[in-house]
Amino acid sequence: MSTEINQGFQDPDEELLRAALAAPEGDLRAFEQLVLQHRGRILADCRCLTRDDNNSEDLAQEVFVKAFFALRGFEKRSSFRSWLQRIKVNHCLNHLKRREGKSFMTIQPETADDLEQLHVAPEAARDLEVMDERTRIALILDSMPATLRVPLVMSDMDELSYDEIATALGIGLSAVKMRIKRGREFFRERYRRDDMPKNVEAGR
Q1: Residues of 166-193 as b/e, b for ≥16 C-beta within 10 angstroms?
Q2: What tens digit of pLDDT does each residue of 4-35 get?
Q3: How many whole angstroms separate alpha carbon 73 and alpha carbon 101?
Q4: Distance CA 105, CA 36 (A)
Q5: If we measure between CA atoms, which residue out of 29, 18, 26, 27 comes closest to residue 72?
Q6: Does residue 20 contact residue 34 with C-beta atoms inside 8 Å?
Q7: Which stretches of 7-55 are DSSP H helices?
Q8: What is the dihedral of CA 67, 72, 77, 81, to 10 degrees?
Q9: Can you give the pTM of this predicted structure?
C-alpha cells in the first residue's frame, strides 16, 4: 500500500517503457509502439512551435531519435509524455534559433506596444468558415508572432509550467506570464473576429 502511494502517479506508457528498456539490442518493437502512440501529437506540436511545414516531419523524427538514445537516462521524475515534450520543445527552439540566425529573445521586441498586433489581419486571408476546427486553430497560431506563439503552445498544448517555460526560453517568469497572457488575448481576438458573421464585421 505504502509502496503504491510512494510511486505517485501511474504513467500510462509505463508498460511499454519498461519493455523498451529491457529489450535486447536491436529489438525496437516496444519503442516503436511508444512512437506510434505519441507521433501525432509530437508532429502537430513541432509544426505549431516552428511554423515550418517543410521540416516538421524531420523535426518530429529527430525528437524520437533523441529520445531513443536518452531513454536509459530517463529518471521517471515525470511521465514519459512530459519528458518527451521537453525534448521536443528544446529541439524546436534550437531549430528556430538556427533558422532565424539569432536568439529567440530577439525575434520580436518585448514592449507592450506589440499588443496592436491583435488587430493586424493574417498575411493570407482565408475563409475560416469552411475550415474544420483544427485547421482554423492552426491558421490562427500561424498568424501569431513567435514570441507569443511559442510560450502559448508550451503552456496550453504541452502543459509546461511557467518556470519550465522560463528556463527553456531563457527569459524571466514575469515575461513568460505576460507573453502567454498576450498570446491568449491574440488567439481569442482572432477566434472571435473570424467567428463573426461577415455582414456584422463589415459594418452592419
Answers
A1: bebbebeeebbebbbebbeebbeebeee
A2: 333 445 667 889 999 999 999 888 999 999 99
A3: 31
A4: 34
A5: 18
A6: yes
A7: 14-22, 29-50
A8: 30
A9: 0.66
